Amino acid sequence: MPATRTEPRGERARRVAGLYAITPERGDAGTLVAAVRAAIDGGARVVQYRRKTRTPAEQRGEAARLAALCRERGVLFIVNDDPALAAAVGADGVHVGEDDADLAAARTAIGPDALLGVSCYDDPALARRVVAEGADYVAFGSMFASTVKPDARRASLDVLRAARDLGVPVVGIGGIDASNAGRVIEAGATAVAVISAVFDAGDVAGAAARIARACSAAAERR
Questions:
Q1: What residues contact 161, with CB distance under 8 A and at least 6 apart?
Q2: SS3 for 138?
Q3: How many domains does the chain have?
Q4: pLDDT value at position 214?
Q5: Is residue 43 domain-resident?
């Protein structure tokens, strides 16, 4: 049963900004929760649960724990590719790609109040179509070379510039760290999605803080 929320969907969507942390594959549930807590301490404003190698039961348990943590800390919690799991744990939304559930089915699963994010890779036309179909935010990338998805399509910063008039938050993803996050925000993204540069760091909170600061400074300059 999709959760009922008091915050209007549009207001929640506007919180897709700054550091958008995506969970790493490695580590057990306890390690994962501790790492996500540290990322939030450092300034992550959105957390996406993405653990492809876990069993459905493990995914349900981990996602429920992270959903509770994010609610406690006032951070958006998004589930990757699994609308049913997002609904089951009361996530703030789901993020889907071109090969995942169609948007109408995803919306039905998560309910009218949850967020629906869509990967648009390097395709502004796709972004315009999914926004017209009800996407609350879109993501483009890989912006730079990525160790997580080395064969991913590359998106130029011009794609972000072209997306400024979409009327929804825009997320840049792929190979982003503190050294280039500002370029992504200045080009037109409202948020940067990061895995390795946050969760591979010895100091997760510190790494998150550096990226969050770079985003804030760039948003002020834009």
A1: 187, 188
A2: strand
A3: 1
A4: 98
A5: yes
CB atoms within 10 A of CB 150: 10
Residue 172 lies in a domain: yes
> Which residue is catalytic, options 119, 142, 183, 210?
119
Q: Please say if 119 is a catalytic residue.
A: yes
* Predicted confidence (pLDDT) per residue in 133-170, tens digit: 999 999 999 999 877 777 778 889 999 999 999 999 99
112 within domain boundaries = yes
Residue 59, domain extent: 9-221
This prediction has a pTM of 0.95
**Is 50 an annotated catalytic residue?**
yes
CATH number at residue 182: 3.20.20.70
Active-site pick, 54, 73, 149, 154: 149
Question: From CA 26, how far away is CA 160, in angstroms rounded?
Answer: 31
Report yes or no on 190 lying in a domain: yes
Catalytic residue among 50, 51, 107, 210: 50
